[in-house]
Amino acid sequence: MLDEYSIVSFNPNDVSEQLLDAYLIFDEKITLELIPEQGLTSIESRKKNLKILNPTRDYAFWVASIPVAEILTVVGSARMSILNKNSPDYEQNGHITRCSILVLSDFTNQGIGTALLDKITEQAMAYNQITDLMFNTYNASGYSFFEKHGAKLALEQNRSYLNLSEVDLNMMNSWNSLGNELAAKDKIKLVEITGSIPDDIIDEYASLYTEIINQQPLGSLQLRHVITVDTFRTRAEQMKKMDQQWHTILTIEHNGQISGLTEFQYSSNQPDMIFQLLTGVKDEYRKRGIGKWLKAKMLLFMMENYPSAKYIETSNTVTNAAMISINTRMGFYDKEPLKFYELKIR
């Protein structure tokens, strides 16, 4: 048991330079421990992004620190993201709060994680609507920590990476050609969008996005996504502030209906990594190869527009066989799984 650590509240927009600098050093160390593939963004970029908060959420943040040679050293952190009444999914998901607990490996099993969990639980109990805490983690010590504290595994996802230098371009071009043939036969239009969804399709896009994201196998996870026009407008504003580029590619059927979509985000502050987000096809338009076409088209788009990128990161529920099959054929490989835990507090 480590006796000399202390835990303090941490407000990124109102914190001493000493503590902020100590936290940024911790953030660098924990990132390299847990997700080295992502690489590091600049300190200035991380400092800026840390201070950008989503107006549909309230936040609570703590850091655990110890003195090392009289220098303040952050060794752990905890964070809560609490839906407020500005959120479109407050009614659906307001009883769940997303949380994280991170502790450097040299300081695990010394009571710091438990003390941070106690802070989260105490804060959550002050919100009458909160009944459950939701955590995600992707290493063995994280899995055992949450299970030891009574959290229930609700969902497991593959955390997958694709090395862009090893992509089979002949196969991707073949998938793209088959998609073009389908487009000509069924009069399907492909649309590329950057930055924000145009007003004339944003309602339909939000509706389809909600349908697709909730069709994914979600295990026993209570969270169900409610995606609205305001969700996308807020996200576009957030990404712009964080210097992130967002792209989506849509398939539009001959009747004008959007049948499928794929999306990704990229930041020049993290040039090695592209983050592949949602890909899906509306139920009635499946089994024609649209999913493969969208993935191939998006990959070719990424490689043309972001030639400095080295990896793509994505995740899929382990029971999502169709998408895992596509990703495997594309060359994605899995790291330790991303596991979601829920802990009931009342």
Descriptive overview:
There is one protein chain. With 346 residues, the protein is of the alpha+beta class. It has two domains: 6-130, Gcn5-related N-acetyltransferase (GNAT) (Aminopeptidase), CATH 3.40.630; 160-336, Gcn5-related N-acetyltransferase (GNAT) (Aminopeptidase). It has ten helices and 13 strands. The chain has helices at residues 17-34, 43-50, 90-93, 112-125, 140-148, 169-186, 202-215, 229-241, 290-305, 321-330; strands at 6-9, 57-68, 71-83, 96-103, 132-137, 152-163, 189-194, 244-252, 258-267, 273-281, 311-317, 333-334, 338-344. Strands 1, 2, 3, 4, 5, 6, 7, 8, 9, 10, 11, 12 and 13 form a 13-stranded mixed β-sheet that branches. Strand 9 (258-267) and strand 10 (273-281) form a beta hairpin. The longest helix is centred in the first third of the chain and has 18 residues, at 17-34. It is globular, with a radius of gyration of 21 Å. It starts with 5 loop residues before the first strand and ends with a strand.
